[in-house]
């Protein structure tokens, strides 16, 4: 009745949204289970942020990001680095992503080397190396704020004012 338009109004609109959310999650799950990496990312993101009517579930989000990462997805590798509580795992995931051409992961590694965080030594030379790699990244997944911060960090590391 709701799908057919027999019932309308706010309650019907809420049901329509819920039905669309259920259909979206069903399709994402089916495609992800068939090996579609974009669907894996979509499902992981839905669990990570509580989208499409799903409750936030970081364990399930991590599982789906991991499946996408196991299939070589550079974005999933970067996200796993961001989600990890372990500094060593952060560096591992970001390095995998950066070596695969992930711009955002290059920036994370540059910051870690510039400030000596995540268990890494403070090493301006390596920080500049990752900033240079960031500029030639295949996957332009850093936001404009990160790019601006990267440019500032490079100026600071180079001694420019």
From TrEMBL:
Pfam families for the chain: Sel1
InterPro entries (UniProt xref): Sel1-like, Sel1_AlgK, TPR-like_helical_dom_sf
SMART domains given in the database record: SEL1
Gene3D superfamilies: Tetratricopeptide repeat domain
Record family assignment: Belongs to the sel-1 family.
This protein's name: Sel1 repeat family protein
Biological source species: Prorocentrum cordatum
């Amino acid at each position: 009745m709701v799908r057919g338009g027999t019932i309308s109004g706010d309650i019907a609109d809420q049901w329509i949204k819920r039905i669309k959310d259920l259909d979206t999650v069903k399709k994402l799950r089916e495609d992800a289970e068939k090996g579609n990496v974009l669907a894996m990312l979509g499902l992981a993101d839905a669990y990570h942020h509580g989208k499409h009517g799903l409750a936030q579930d970081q364990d399930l989000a991590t599982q789906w990001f991991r499946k996408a990462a196991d299939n070589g997805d550079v974005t999933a590798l970067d996200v796993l680095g961001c989600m990890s509580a372990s500094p060593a795992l952060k560096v591992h995931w970001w390095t995998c992503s950066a070596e695969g051409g992930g711009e955002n992961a290059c920036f994370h590694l540059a910051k870690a080397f510039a400030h000596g965080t995540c268990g890494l030594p403070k090493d301006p030379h390596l920080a500049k190396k990752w900033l240079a790699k960031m500029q030639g990244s295949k996957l332009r997944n850093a936001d404009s704020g990160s790019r601006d911060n990267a440019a500032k960090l490079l100026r600071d590391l180079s001694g420019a004012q």
